[in-house]
Amino acid sequence: MADPPQKPRAAENARVHPSGAAGDGDRDGWRRRLSLTDRPATTSSASLLSLANAFADPAELKLPPAPAPLRIDAPDPIGGADEANGRGRREDRAAEMRARLALGDYTGALDLAEQIVGDGVDDPLDLEARRCAEGCRATLIRMYHARIGSVDRVPVVVVPRERLRWLSLDHRAGFLLSRIDGASTVEDILDVSGMPMLDALRILAELVTKQVIAFR
Amino acid sequence: MEKVIGIDLGTTNSCVAIMENDAPAVIPNRGGYKTTPSMVAVTEAGKRLVGHIAKRQAITNAENTVYAAKRLIGRKWTSSQVNNAVATSSYRIVEGPHNDVRIVLRERDFSVPEISALVLQEMKVIAEDYLGGPVTKAVVTVPAYFNDNQRQATKDAGEIAGLDVIRIINEPTAAALSYGYGRNYEKTVAVYDFGGGTFDISILEIGAHGVFKVIATAGDTFLGGEDIDARVIDWLVDGFKAEHGLDLRQDRMALQRLKDAAEKAKCELSSVRETEVNLPFIISSGRNEALHLQRTLTRATLEDLSTDLIERTIDICRQTLEDAELETGDIEDVVLVGGQTRMPRIQQEVAGFFDREPSRGVHPDEVVALGAAIQGASLVDDRQEMILLDVTPHALGIMTFGSIFEELIPQNTTVPTQRQKIFTTSRDNQTAVKILVMQGDSDKAEENEVLGEFILTGLRRAPKGIVEIEVTFEINADGIVSVRAKDLETGLEQSIQVTATSGLTREEIRNMIADAQDQMVERRSTEEFEALRQEAEKLTVELERLFPQVEPIVASSDFGRDAIEKARAVVARARQAIQRKDTVALKEQIDGLTRTQRMFRGVLSKS
Q: Which residues contact B582 (CB under 8 A, 6 or more apart)?
């Protein structure tokens, strides 16, 4: 079988926050660490965009022609200041979500989309965020699958047991490693992980990249 | 001759065995293990997991993982055991439509026989894979204390799993059968069964002509090896908290790993004196790093942690012997059953109590399934003598004045059978009597199971104790109990037929069978596709390797170029079939791939 394409890794790792900091939607430090350590230092926005376009399915991910500019809304004459601020924050987030999507930062875009959906406000932004989240998830799953290969493969831990603890891993990666017994397939491990599939796939893909696990 | 499998459907683990060449043998599962966890789970994606894979996610997906379903099978919603399970189980237990029990997994209600059916189906598949053909008949074991409803529910579980359960036998009887197989013993033995979730002690008389009598049986359905695991987990958690100030119980992933490690360490300590528990990256410190757990557990510490649990089992043994009016000297041998009995300290305690070394001739994990397989073979093989007689597992009788249970058919009576007794009225001018048919071994009626009731009316008005009523109990060869009450003076008669019920209707069982069959078809088709995919991938990898070698040899001719093009097309079509998960197309392409492989090899061998 052909080697999995390498481009998605660069695209996925390109979590460049406009301010230069890691995204605030990063729920676990592990993901942040990976992003920071694996991000190519010289990657430009233009190359990221081309990578993004290479992987995004136009049917699933509709990229806006350009990142939407940040808007500062005028105070709402009917609602209070809080409501206006809330909507402003949602629109700021939506703008950043679009920008990240345009940059091919699917993880960052997904985090923001989930935050917008999590607000529980039923408006056009919510619909856009849901679509964005769905598209990002599908793309990320494809990318991780490309790195891992068939889910029927059996992973094995290739780092000696006594050296494992010197690796930079978090407890979730530790848990997945503990499920790898040399007999269970990737699919089995996803089933027993107790994590959302996307998270489990991402961690396994990173363990492959870091050469902590390999396949039989 | 049709093969009959023997299944030990355990509370925590199950085991399947078969007779081969006149000797019983356990069939290992695909992972090579001889026992399979009796656990069932449903994943977020709706996939059903059974056995080891379900166990490996039991804590991280606790709400949707069923363990110890056997404690619930055939029980009524209102029973104390069910109340206990509702309070202590991590999965949701709700009331079923017939005062039965249902378990909710991912918003779908499962009956308990349905859950047990998934485990039985797994055992059936293990046997079928091993034997290379379908298996339809089975002997399944149950605890000696199971009543008729629990036995019927186990039979129903077998039916749902696609098995004809030709006999249900008691676990200690199966163990004794395996222990005495080919030895022609006549002796009294104790079967000390310390499993993963339950403890049972049974005293049996192995008599001549295949009569195995359970003289006494007792136990604790909430005492097992898992309680010892829990002690080890506590020890690890407390040590970690003292060192790092973090409670591992708060993290499900950590707890899952602790559970696995505790069980593994405990098993290792049966053969070594100390073992290391090493769990790297067990929990996040909260400061962007993960902490590791590393501790050495010694056998002595394990024994300290479990002393009171082991003593409880010995107390139950003592009480059981007392109740049966037996001395330890009456016991001629002790058979150990259940993985937990491998613990050296348990063997010492048992030897100390019974004042004799337990029998070493049987494998504690396998002995029950082996006994079931022996019985299964004897039921279908005319050459083999009938080994076990059908007996009533509990006494049958009626409730009399003062809530006293009056026994008509004693426990261990060989069926078919018929017994009668004459009763009188308990009040003056009593014109009707209520016959409450019960099953159980307690003198107190409320401690036994009610099987049914009916009223005999039209009795002559007379002082109490004058009117005589004859009550007849009859059990036919199919185990159906009929009870008849007759006014001896007038000849007036009323009767009832009692059939055990699992709490499921026939229609429900039919629907469950259909669902289980659908699931099995899907599973088999996935397995078939998977086998084809692996074969196709192996062939395509080899062809890809051969293309650069073959191409220069044949490229000089049009025919050769055409052949190479066709070969590439076959590989492409096989890949498409894999992608589409199209089993039929993949089968066709494998033929093409095989032909191409042969051709390539031929070209290379001639060059």
A: none
Record the tokens describing residue B587, joined without a space: 């089968």
Q: Are B331 and B357 in contact (CB under 8 A)?
A: no
CB B532 within 8 A of CB B586: yes
CA neighbours closer than 13 Å in the CB half-sphere of residue B56? 21
CB distance from B290 to chain A under 8 Å? Answer: yes
Strands B4-9 and B137-142: parallel
A173 to chain B, any CB pair closer than 8 A? The answer is yes
User: Regarding beta strands B333-337 and B187-194, do their DSSP bridges make them parallel or antiparallel, or are they unpaired?
Assistant: parallel
Task: Go through A71-93 and write b for each residue having 16 or more CB atoms within 10 A of its CB, e for each that does not.
Answer: eeeeeeeeeeeeebeebbebbeb
Task: Decide if B520 contacts B122 (C-beta within 8 A).
Answer: no
A193-to-A89, A176, A181, B43 alpha-carbon distances in Å:
35, 7, 13, 10
* Residue B113: closest CA among B529, B518, B604, B508: B508
Quick one: pLDDT band at residue A26, thresholds 50, 70, 90?
Answer: very low
Is the CB of residue B540 less than 8 Å away from at least one CB of chain A? yes
Q: Yes or no: say if B600 and B543 are a contact pair by the CB < 8 Å rule.
A: yes
Give percent of chain B with pLDDT exceeding 90: 70
Burial of B325 (0-12, 13-18, 19+ CB in 10 A): exposed
Place of tokens 């017939």: B98
Q: What pLDDT does residue A84 have? A: 63
CA distances in angstroms from B476 to B139, B224, B469, B473, listed in the order given:
20, 37, 22, 10
Structure tokens at B144: 């000696």
For residue B215, the distance in angstroms to the closest alpha carbon of chain A comes to 44
Residues in CB range of B527: below 8 A, 6 or more apart:
none
A117-151 pLDDT, tens digit each: 988 777 888 899 999 999 999 999 999 988 898 88
CB spacing of B279 vs A179 below 8 angstroms: no
Indicate whether this model's pTM tops 0.90: no
The set of residues, in sequence order, having a beta carbon less than 8 Å from that of B376 and lying 6+ positions away, is: B4, B5, B6, B18, B19, B137, B138, B139, B166, B167
Chain A residue with Cα closest to B544 = A1
CB distance A194–B253 less than 8 Å? yes
- Cβ within 8 Å of residue B107, ≥6 positions away: none
Q: Which two tokens stand for residue B454?
A: 């009916």
pLDDT for B559: 81
How far is residue B340's CA from residue B266's CA, in Å, rounded to a whole number?
9
Rounded to a whole number of angstroms, the distance between the first and last alpha carbons of chain A is 14
Residues linked to residue B275 through DSSP beta bridges, in sequence order = B297
Q: Do A193 and B60 touch (CB under 8 A)?
A: yes
- In this structure, what DSSP letter does residue B136 have? -
Three-state SS annotation for B259-315: HHHHHHHHHHCCCCCEEEEEEEEEEECCCCCEEEEEEEEEHHHHHHHHHHHHHHHHH
**Interatomic CA distance for residues B261 and B179, integer angstroms:** 33
- Rounded to 10 deg, the angle between the A197-209 and A186-193 helix axes is 130
d(CA B425, CA B459): 9
β A213-215/B4-9 pair status: unpaired
Task: List C-alpha distances in Å: A5 to A57, A143, A146.
Answer: 16, 9, 7
Residue B75 near residue B81, CB atoms below 8 Å: yes
| Residue B65 contacts A where some CB pair is shorter than 8 Å | no
ipTM: 0.76
Q: Do B280 and A33 touch (CB under 8 A)?
A: no
Q: Are B559 and B566 in contact (CB under 8 A)?
A: no
Chain A nearest C-alpha distance from B115 (Å): 19
Per-residue tokens: B413: 């009576």
Q: What is the DSSP string of B438-498?
A: EE-S-SBGGGSEEEEEEEE--PPP--TTTSEEEEEEEE-TT--EEEEEEETTT--EEEEEE
A67 to chain B, closest Cα gap in Å: 32
